[in-house]
Amino acid sequence: MRISNAQITAMMHGSMNVSSEKLGKLMQQMASGERMLLPSDDPISAVRVLRIQREEASLTQYRTNIANVSGNLSKQEANLKAASDTMLSVRDLLLWGANGSNTDEDLAAIANELKSLEATLLSFANVRDEEGRYLFSGTRTNQPAIELVAGTYQLRGNDQYRQAAVANGVLIEENVTAAQVFGTDVGMLNDLHALVQMLEDPALDASDPAVRAQIVASMDSLDATHGRLLGAVTDLGGRQNTLTLLGSSNEDVSLVNQKIEGELSKLDYAGASIDLNNYQLSLQATQKTYLKINGLSLFGML
Question: Which domains does the chain have, with CATH numbers?
Fold first, then answer.
């Protein structure tokens, strides 16, 4: 079979084009650091990388949610601890008022301090976040948790919990409710409000047994509410610990994902350097061969 000069030229051009194409692709890979420039380069690995990237997007959202929830819980915990200190101050005043040796003036002074502490407790119950949402109103974050209506404290929020996704299939409650701490009837604040009104009455008789009975009843209501508040603080601490553990777990998963993605998609520069050298040698050999064959002629053999 006779091979013409045109066929030899076509074969040489084809060989040089293939080598040039492989060399160009390899140089693109080395410039980008990516082994797969197109999904078609490795369809199976490309699918796995896409799955990992979707999971990483979810983990990024979980990290954001954990940071937001943790910050929110910290604010609530700080306010509850401050409310706890205020309740202890109220209790000290109630103990003073219940000792039976107070004058009318003493009880009036106690009433004045209790009235200020009552307002402080209400402000803690109706605290807002930086976006203006009421922290303790349940899911009704656009309205105060507790309001004084016609002389009676009423719950305006609800007892529902807001939830956030913090890991795959894991939701965590991001709030404490005023209903959880003060009760649905807001009994402690109403008892305290009624006691203040009694002690402020100019006609009050400090020796009246009803006065001490009212103070003791308010103290019992306060103790029950304070117990629920401490339970809520403990619950918040438990949630913070859970968030810390989940955050660490998510970071571990993310590190594994990054390792696998690197193994699937990142270029092995050591191997690529060897391939680059081989492609360059192959291309140079083809070019030299082509030039040598192209220079051959029948007259040159004579």
Answer: 14-32+272-293 (no CATH), 50-261 (1.20.1330.10)
